[in-house]
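Run log // design_07
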């Protein structure tokens, strides 16, 4: 499943641990911080600590605010 960058809408791999492309990530946070974010997110996925942020399939069960 493909997904799109939240900033520029470019397609990114569905298995990506981040919801933005590398170009936008580097543009927003800079090279060092982007690499740190990516590393930490990948480590969290390996540990099983990463929670999917795609709520579309289960959005009907969300509380109304």
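design_07 sequence
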């Amino acid at each position: 499943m493909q997904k799109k960058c939240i900033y520029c809408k470019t397609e990114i791999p569905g298995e990506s641990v981040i919801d933005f492309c590398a170009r936008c990530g580097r543009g927003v946070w800079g090279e060092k911080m982007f690499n740190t974010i990516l590393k930490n997110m990948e480590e969290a996925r390996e540990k099983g600590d990463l929670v999917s942020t795609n709520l579309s399939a289960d959005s009907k069960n969300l509380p109304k605010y």
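Helices lie at 22-29, 31-47.
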